[in-house]
Amino acid sequence: MRPVILLGHSNFLAHDSKQQEKMKPYSPLSTLLAAALLRQAGHEIALFDATFASGIDDFETMLDELRPTVVVIMEDNFNFLTKMCTTVRRETALAMIRAASARGCKVAANGPDVSDNPALYLDAGADAVVLGEGEMALLDLVGHWQNQEDEPASIPGLILADAHGVKTTHVRRPLQDLDELPHPAWDLLDVVSYRSAWQAAHGEFSWNVATSRGCPYACNWCAKPTFGRRYTVRSPEDVANEVRLLKQQLEPDHLWFTDDILGLDVDWVCEFAEEIRRQDAVIPFSMQSRVNLMTDKSVAALAAAGAREVWLGVESGSQKILDAMDKGTTVDAARLATRVLKAHGIKACWFIQLGYPSETWLDLISTRDFIRDEEPDDIGVSVAYPLPGTEFYDRVRAQLGWQRNWKDTGELAMLFQGTYDTEFYRKVRDVLHDEAASRKPRADCWRRLEREATSHRSPQPFRLAVGR
Known about the structure:
Layout: E1 5-8, H1 17-22, H2 29-40, E2 45-48, H3 56-66, E3 70-74, H4 80-84, H5 87-102, E4 106-110, H6 112-116, H7 118-123, E5 128-130, H8 135-146, E6 158-162, E7 165-168, H9 191-202, E8 206-209, E9 212-213, E10 232-233, H10 236-249, E11 254-257, H11 266-278, E12 285-289, H12 296-305, E13 307-315, H13 319-324, H14 331-343, E14 347-354, H15 361-374, E15 378-383, H16 391-396, H17 422-438, H18 443-453
Parallel strand pairs: 1-2, 1-3, 3-4, 4-5, 8-11, 11-12, 12-13, 13-14, 14-15
Antiparallel strand pairs: 5-6, 6-7, 9-10
Helix pairs in contact: 2-8, 3-5, 10-11, 11-12, 17-18
C-alpha cells in the first residue's frame, strides 16, 4: 500500500551556513511525534527529512514517487531556532506547500511562523494551519480529510481560508498528559547519517529528547506561540523509559534535552535522577535552565542523572538590562548558579543577549567583566530579536522596516534601532567569544571598540519609557 500521508519540515542544513559549520543536527522531534501518533492511529505515513537533503528538488522527487494525498509541513517546535524563522526557512516551507498543492495534495502546516503569519501559508496553498502544539488537531484533521468529509470548521485548533480572508476554529485545549503520546518515530530517520555527521564533526553522537512543554516565566522578549506560559511535564518514568530505549536502539553518546527548562520542580529532578539510574539509562546530557533553579539539591540530582553541561539564560551582566527584560533574575543569582554547577562538576554555559533597548557601553562592559570574573565554560552570543507576540516586539514595532527576520541563523542583524549598529555588535560578539575561549583579556580589542563606538551609534536608538 502506498503511503498517503507525507510529513516533512523545512530545516535544510544546506540552506544555513552557520548550522552547517556547527554540524549539530538533531532530529525533528515535533515531526516525529506527529508521525508516531498518526501511525498509531492506523494511517500509512512517510517522512521527508530535510536535514541532509540538498533542496526543494528532493522534496518534489518524493512527492512524485509517493503521490501522497495528504502533506503535513510540521516544523520542530522543540528547536529554539524554529521560533526565529529565518527568511530562507520560511521561503522553503512556502515552496514545499506550493509544490504539494500543485500536485493536488491536501496540505496542513504547523509551526511558530505558521501561527504568526497564517495568511502567508494559506495563500501558498495550505488547506489548513494547525495552531499550537498541533498533534491532536492534526490527527483529527487527517481523519476528517481521509473520510472525505466537508470543510473541517468543527475541528478545534485550526485556521482556515474563507471568502473574507481567514477564520479560526474553536480553541483547542492543550494536551494535559504528555505520557499519552507515543515516543517519536525514530525509525523513519536515516540515523546513520546523523551519527556520521556528529562523529565526523565532534567525535561523538548526540540525540535530542523533550521532557516538557512551555515556560511559566515572563521574559518580555521570549515568544511562546506554540506552548505558551503553561508548563506541562512528562513523568520521570516515561522520560527515563525513552532514554533507556534510545540507549538500547540508537546508542547515542550524548543527549540534548530541548526543554526551555528541564526540571522546573526539584522533586521532579530528584525522581528523574532516581529513575534514570534504576533503568540503567544514564547517558551524559546537556540542557537549558534558569539561574534561580540551580540549587545545590537540584544540581546534585542533575549530576547523578548524567548532566554534563547546563545552559543558563544569563543574558547580561547589567542588572538594569535584566530588569528591563522582565527577566526575574539577578546578576548575583547567575554568579551563584555558575559556581554551584562547577562545584558539582557540571559545565556552566551562558546565553548572552546584546543590544537590548537602553543598553549602553557601560552595560556592555559589565557583561564583559561578568564573563571574565565567572569564566563560564562556553557562551552563546546573540542580539535582541523582536519576535511577534512579545511585549518587546510591540515596543519596537514602529522601528521595524522591511526586514523582520534574519536571512539565516548566522546573520546577527539588528532589526530595530539599538544603541549600536549590526556591525558593531558583531565585533563585540567576536571579542566576547575570543576572550571566553582563550581565557585571556583582549584589552587592545576593547580599546578599539570604545574608539569606534561613537561612529557605530544608531541615529535614534530606541529607549525604554521612564520607569521601566
